[in-house]
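Narrative summary of target 7.
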Amino acid sequence: MKRILHLISSIQGNKSHSLELGNAIIEKVIEKYPGSTVKEVNLVDLDIPHLSPATLQSLFSPGDKLTAEDKELIQFSNEAVNQLMASDIIVIGAPLYNFTIHTSLKSWIDHITRPGITFGYTENGPVGMVTGKKVYVAMSSGGIYSEGPGKNNDFVAPYLKAFFGFLGMTDLTVFRAEGLKVPGVMEHAMEKGIASIHID
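Modeled conformation, tokenized:
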């Protein structure tokens, strides 16, 4: 039994390809780990605030120094970190928009990047503190970005690998539904993406 956190960052609602791919990943995880639970979080619906100077200062302040206003500013951050820490598997729906991730996912990332909580500084540099978790990325794109000329414009998979690795989550796998707008490819792109799913 695993605790699965499913993050959705698509603006396409039920028509979302990354949502369909993410749900397929979760189905495969539950097949392998019967009885697993799923916590679904739609980041777009949450309208997560972008970091402000005041919020950033609060995130870096010691707990005993926080004012009531500070605590209110980091309430979402605390909730997001708790959800992350309570999960064994994180499934991230990550459609490619203008070569990168949606702002809702970026805002979530900003709020879970907490010194002393999700990463720490040492004499040898930063060390991730979120370990023992598996991350699956359900990436969708209209074009093809895993290979060919589009590969240099993929700032979704490399960024997410780098970021989650920074926090200690180095076991990350990306599954792609790509070419969803490419004639001759789009007809089977979703089917191919789902067929590529394998759960370690």
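The chain has eight helices and seven strands.
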